[in-house]
Amino acid sequence: MEEEILPDYESSEDENPTNGDNKVATSTTAVHESGFADFLLKNEILRAIADCGFEHPSAVQHECIPAALLGTDLICQAKSGMGKTAVFVLSILHLIEKEGKGIVALVITHTRELAYQILEEFNRFTKYLPHLKAKVVYGGVPIQQDKKDFAESMPQILIGTPGRVLHLANEKIVSFSNVKYFILDECDQMLEELKMRKDIQEIFKFTPHTKQVMMFSATLSDDVRAVCKRFMHNPREIYINDKAKLTLDGLQQFYVNLTEEQKTRKLISLLDVLEFNQVVIFVSSVDRAQVLNELLINEKFPSIATHSKLKQEQRIDQYKNFKKFGARILVSTNMYGRGVDFERVNVVFNYDMPHNEVTYLHRVGRAGRFGTKGIAISFVSSDEDREVMENVRKQFVVKLPELPDELDCSTYMT
Ligand code: AMP
Fold it and tell me: What is the pLDDT of residue 2?
């Protein structure tokens, strides 16, 4: 491992100036007219794409897949829910060689549920590539179990959360010396949080000097972008839509002014009148998630709750249950604020307003994914909430008006 390529976080000012040619900002329409066949992907992958019902690449796929296939390091910022996962899943599956020994691709993300979701994406697209195996690792599973799994069969693709991936490397349970593709999904979340950033730096040191690094998020501040670049060589930076246009086109956003005491009654009355396929309700703490969920169940709403205090298997079970439409309402902490993809969610509530505009943007992006319609309703009950709302309006140039008395359901039901 050569020292000079190690990420170093001491000086943040003097970044490698990015070659202007390497920066692409585009506001192409959500779905591109070209076909996946234009990427010249392996036939086995094209067949799996067809089985998934994907007709055309989305804008992010159109811009990023060709760059990824060329082996370029990549920073990609694009709206949430527009198919970023398939960018790295399809590219890796195309690039990975048949005879690849040991772990060739390493994908790291911040929550267990998102890691599991990415595994499922790899599984979907390896349907006709049975020799390629992916495995997911995260905390909460006994390390002995992982050890046993690796001893039985070594995958070429490993997806995991930072802590467990580092643990496996430190304990020499797996080797990352053959890694050719290093991916961070929701990279800003991980690089902003000190503990995760440290873990990622450590993991990075276990991988070879020469590899392709790709990072993805809907939100990337200038500071984090500079940090991302420290892991890369002359990366191509792709921005689909500029920062101001990051909210989803099919998503309507409203606020309701009320007191803390009025929140539950208002929520229930809205759940009674709104048409919904599935709803996610965000609250600010584990306790509030549990209490609100029980309250909704008492009121005969088909609700479940998920949060970090559930046992590991319960967390993934809740994820699977909601994904397959086993419940219509999910009460969650911020744990589901990013990345997780529930196709049928068309209503999001911020029962408790998040603390900043970035978290707001990710949360509301759970509805209106991939060109569908949706509605996000935020309860505003304090000056701090109002300030966040103002920042959302400013940063993302959205109107965010007060919720009207009546809403035409065709505007938020696909
Ligand atoms: P992601 O942003 O990666 O979480 O993807 C959001 C949703 O869009 C997922 O349900 C994907 O299966 C779906 N999706 C991704 N790419 C396409 C595509 N080209 N056509 C149709 N659906 C897609």
Answer: 37
Mutate to test the pocket of ligand 1, among 85, 214, 361 (most ligand atoms within 8 A of CB): 85
Contact of 313 with 113, CB cutoff 8 Å: no
Give the Å distance between the CA of 348 and the centre of ligand 1.
Answer: 19
Which residues lie below 8 Å from residue 307, measured CB to CB, with a gap of 6+? Answer: 286, 289, 290, 332, 333, 335
Max mean pLDDT among 10-24, 94-108, 322-336 falls in 322-336
**Which residue has a Cα nearest atom 5 of ligand 1?**
83
* Residue nearest to ligand 1 atom 22, measured at CA: 54
The residue whose CA is least distant from atom 16 of ligand 1 is: 83
On the question of a common fold for 3-241 and 247-411, the answer reads yes
Q: Given the CA of residue 56, which atom of ligand 1 is nearest to it? A: 19
Supply the residue whose CA is at minimum distance from atom 13 of ligand 1: 83
pLDDT of residue 135: 97
**Domain ranges, ordered by start, for the chain:** 3-241, 247-411
- Burial of residue 209, with CB atoms counted within 10 A of its CB: 0-12 exposed, 13-18 middle, 19 or more buried: exposed
pLDDT in tens, 331-354: 999 988 888 889 899 999 999 999
Lowest mean pLDDT among 21-35, 73-87, 397-411: 21-35
Query: Any residues with CB less than 8 A from the CB of 90 and at least 6 apart, and which?
Result: 36, 39, 41, 45, 49, 61, 65, 125
> What does the pLDDT look like over 79-96, one tens digit per residue?
888 899 999 999 999 999
CATH code for residues 3-241: 3.40.50.300
Q: Which CATH number fits domain 247-411: 3.40.50.1580, 3.40.640.10, 3.40.50.300, 3.30.200.20?
A: 3.40.50.300
The pLDDT-based confidence of 245 (bands split at 50, 70, 90) is: low
Name the residue type at position 330. Answer: L
Q: Enter the pTM of the model.
A: 0.86
334 CA to centre of ligand 1 in angstroms: 22
Q: For residue 370, how far is its CA from the centre of ligand 1 (angstroms)?
A: 6
Torsion angles phi and psi, residue 181, rounded to 5:
-130, 125
Residue nearest to atom 20 of ligand 1 (CA): 54
